[in-house]
Amino acid sequence: MPFDRRDTATSRPAYRLTTGIVGALLLGAALTVGLRPVGPLPPLGLLLDPQHGAWALARSAEHPAEHEVNIPSLSAPVEVRYDDRGVPHIFANNLLDALRAQGYVVARDRLFQLELQTRAAAGTLTELVGARALDADRATRRNGLPWGARRKFEAAQRDADAKAVLEAYADGVNAYIAQMRAADLPLEYRLLGRRPQRWDAEHTMLLLVRMGLTLAWSDFELARAQLEARVGRDAVDALFPQDAWVQEPIQPTTQVAATRGGVRIPPPQPDSAARRLAATARAMAPQLAALRVEHDGVLGSNNWAVAPSRSATGHALLANDPHLELSLPSIWYEVHLVVPDTLDSYGVTFPGAPGVILGMNRDIAWGATNVGADVADYYIEAVNDTVAPTQYQLDGVWEPLAISESVYRDATGRELARDTLRYTHRGPLIAAGDDWVSRRWLVLEPSADLAGFLAASRATSVASYFAAMDAHWSPAQNFIVADRAGHIGIRSTGRYPLRPAGQRGDRFFDGRTRASDWTGFLTPTGAPQAIDPAQGFLASANQQPAHPGDLPTYLGNDWPAPWRALHINALLRRDAQVTADAMRRYQTDPGNARADTLVPRLLRIGERVAAAVPQDSVLRRAVTLLAAWDRRFDPANTRAALFESIMRELGRLTWDELAVDDVAAEPTAVPTRFLAMPPEHVLMALLEDEQSVWWDRPATAQRETRDSIVVAALRGGLRALEADRGPESQWRWSDIRVANIWHPLRIPALSALGLSVQGGRESLNPSSGNGVHGASWRLVAELGPHVVGHAIYPGGQSANPVSPRYRDRIERWRTGQLDSLRVPDAPSALRAEHHRATLTLTPR
Amino acid sequence: MNAFLRAWGALSVLCALATVFVGWWAVPIVVALWSALVPRVGGVAAAALGGATAWAALLLMQNRAGRITEVAELLGAIIGTSGLALLALTVLYGALLAGSTALLVRALVPPRRRG
Fold first, then answer.
1. Does the predicted interface ipTM exceed a cut of 0.85?
2. What is the domain partition of chain B in residue ranges?
3. Is A490 exposed, middle or buried (0-12, 13-18, 19+ CB in 10 A)?
């Protein structure tokens, strides 16, 4: 059969050449965009592949009803039953198998999160997200986070039990990674064009160090050095006192005075001798900035427990809501571990941490708030070379620095940067202008924190919980416990560095002598604590743990005003028949002791001046509006916004001596930055001192007094709010203060943003200005014949964004609701209507 | 016409199987083999349609859980386009992989005379 014309045309060399070139170009382009990211787009092949690409999210949104997997390292089969809230109930024959299963189910639901937070602590984010993470990685490594994790891991390797626990968990994670279908690859990997890394047992230690960074970072020395140069040491001591001026300590006290009177803040006296240290601190600050957790000073956790004598049911009750940076998926993962005669523990854990961190078992319930202790000190070192030192001086002898080279790479292995890391016996050595500064930080010390959590989750009483947590080092937490026998207890648990006699930890130390070093540690048994107090309840809200007269040693100096503690205690004092539901309501109570304390003081001054100057309409309006405020931070409230605007203006005008920026005469939309803002208990104390020179603003010709500053704040706060938002109808609190729960990659479509929440600064449900902090977990437990739990966290169990478990809890969290927890003691005890899926893990 | 339909159907099945059992990058391989081994059956259009049909069918199969529009909207929001456009882009990408491969291979492999 002859060729037709078309065949003839297509066989011409020119035509074939042309179509060949076009075909090659199109195929080349298709393969290029398929394999490599182009601009903001991820590799399209991995993303659009209808079988293995992101479309597979639809198929993997829910766990299959029945699934069986082999994990070679298991010693016996493990059954995992998922309930209707997506919580896995793990039934195993021994602890290590339970932890293997935990590693598996956590990886199944949160694989990308596991890797991301581990890399954040290892300083290897560049290998996942590229050069944009280089600054963060540098700060992480230079400040010794991976170094500290390695020390913890090496210590764990010497402890057979700890080693087995870490390896069991890693086995589970890696079993999931090895058996994961291509379709199950989390979306984030597809967007980044990456594959998951294997989980090393050491990664758990990186996670613990990361939590230490969040909860136990302290660098007030830097601000203090700069403040002392500007206003003098005496003034700084008074502005940032070791002990809060308003006392409502965690440990109930017999000391009488709740408010320490007679406050006089010495006048500012610039200290030229402190300038050199201030320059060192200034040079050091940027190197720490990438690690600091900024939270507008409104990060605040709460916990409390009520004795049977004050509960409606006659059983102990416990509530806890730790506040942390919010993220979607949540930083918590809910899990239930059951090992007959060994463990039956329910609660939340950090993905990557074996066991349960906060929660309950069949006998007790427990929770935590952060102590905020000062567990880091800075030492000015003498080195042999100011550019590239190899030795540091110690008691007149040159000691060698431990030195290592650190290389930063991108995902392809290409070198992005290189650092030389140096360590003294105290910790990382950091260049700071003309000085070199080393830091000792408790978070980086070898410790057995995980063993403490695992043992404590098996405790059967308040006393045995505390005994188990004697092993806990850091971050120090106010652990609160209630048991079925009706006991309640709280203890500021952790290790606290003991400094050389007479020394606190809020100033730089001379690194040239060992006499500057820590002399030991205060152990948890000596820390502030209370069990079964006469008042019938216990509470903590990050306030100073013990009254100054009861403090065993210097624990820290960064104590916030105890506004939340005052409010919790007031709620508990006036309710002698507390119920679990009342505790739930308290967790988002819109009342505010800060406003209750400060508003009357501001109004007294404002009303007096307004009466004397009736033509001042702005002042009169501010006073009238504020006086009619119910002092509640509920979503519909409009006056809460006015109060916050006035307080912001009051701080700006009062602490102008401490400002980094020039403080303009009129408030601006850009918040003024301060070297450090004194805590509000100091402002409250200052309000009692009408003639203090701190009321005067050096930048103005006239001499300001307390009254003139308060009146200016009332006027300025109202004007600023009206300029920013318009008339009062537009001051709804829900429009001003919202929760923003971001995905870690800051992708809006994967986040939950602009959520109206009840609560404001220093209420029991505080939210920060940018809305990224809040209650990360809320638990209310009833310790009756059976322990009954009600809890929630913002987000959901699954990290698959199209899963019904991705954000299913957010609305209930936003409105202060709690879920009833299912706590079956055997697989068959999970009721059919609550049972959603079964995963069977078998040894090969 | 029958030959074209047969080629379209065969290529649809081959592209789907390659995607399911290997991955997206196997589509050019099976189309290249087809185009090299049976260059006279079907053409660039059959290959492109085969790639598109295969991927459209796989998308439909992914929709067994009924969430494909949810995924489309989510991915669209991340990338900055509509969900529908992303669904269309997926089908077109399958067509591009197959069609461009056929175009290239047909240019490289000279048609054999028959008869």
1. yes
2. 2-108
3. buried
Cβ proximity of A406 and A419 under 8 Å = yes
> Strand A787-792 relative to strand A819-820: parallel, antiparallel, unpaired?
antiparallel
Bridge-based pairing of strands A509-510 and A738-741 is: unpaired
Instruction: Give the gap in angstroms from C-alpha A357 to the nearest C-alpha of chain B.
Output: 33
* CA distance to partner chain A, nearest, from residue B38 (Å): 15
Min Cα separation A560/chain B (Å) = 40
Query: Residue B58 phi/psi, 5° resolution?
Result: -65, -35
Establish, for the pair of chains A and B, how many residue pairs have beta carbons separated by less than 8 Å.
Answer: 130
State which residues of chain A have pLDDT below 50. Answer: 1-5
Using DSSP bridges, classify how beta strands A529-531 and A488-493 pair: parallel, antiparallel or unpaired.
Answer: antiparallel
- For residue A2, the model assigns a pLDDT of 43
The answer to whether the Cβ–Cβ distance between B93 and A749 falls below 8 Å is no
Question: Which has the closest alpha carbon to A794: A357, A353, A326, A299?
Answer: A326
A801 vs B23, B74, B115: nearest CB: B74
User: With bands split at pLDDT 50, 70 and 90, how would you rate the model's confidence at B114?
Assistant: very low
The single-letter DSSP state of residue A197 is P
Intra-chain end-to-end CA distance of chain A, in Å: 63
Gap between the Cα atoms of A716 and A644, Å rounded: 12
Chain A closest-CA separation from residue B64 CA (Å)? 8
Distance CA A605, CA A713 (A): 11
Beta strands in A410-504 (DSSP E): 415-423, 428-432, 435-441, 477-483, 488-493, 496-498
CB-count exposure of residue A279 (10 Å: 0-12, 13-18, 19+):
middle
Token match 């240290």: residue? Answer: A277
Q: Looking at chain A, which residue has its C-alpha nearest residue B69?
A: A58
Question: Residue A504: which residues within 8 A CB-CB, separation 6 or more?
Answer: A242, A374, A554, A557
Range 8-37 of B in CB contact (< 8 A) with A: 19-20, 23-25, 28
Instruction: Check the CA dihedral B97-A59-A331-A427 and report its sign.
Output: negative
Residues in chain A within 8 Å Cβ distance of B28: 27, 30-31
Distance CA A616, CA A196 (A): 65
What letter represents residue A428's amino acid?
P
Which chain B residues touch A4 with a CB distance below 8 Å?
Answer: none
Nearest to A322 by CA among A162, A214, A467: A214
* Contacts with A, B 89-108, CB within 8 Å: 89-90, 93-94, 96-97, 99-108
Asked if the bond preceding A329 is cis, omega within 30° of 0, the reply is yes
Minimum distance, in Å, between the CA of residue A391 and any CA atom of chain B: 51
Residue pLDDT, tens place only, A415-465: 999 999 999 999 999 999 889 999 999 999 998 788 889 999 999 999 999
Here the tokens at position A147 are: 């170094």
Both structure tokens of A783: 């310790």
Q: Are B47 and B98 in contact (CB under 8 A)?
A: yes
Contacts of A55 in chain B (CB under 8 A): 58-59, 62, 68, 71, 90
| Residue whose entry in the numeric block shows the structure tokens 């090496």 | A154
Among the partner residues B63, B75, B97, nearest to A30 by beta-carbon distance: B97
Which of B15, B27, B100, B109 to mutate to probe the A interface, most A CBs <10 Å? Answer: B100
| Contact check, Cβ <8 Å, A26/B77 | no
Between chains, do B103 and A191 touch, taking CB under 8 Å as contact? no
- Per-residue pLDDT tens for A773-816? 899 999 999 999 999 999 999 999 999 999 999 999 999 999 99
**Amino acid sitting at position A306:** V
Coil vs helix vs strand at A497: strand
Distance CA A311, CA A320 (A): 17
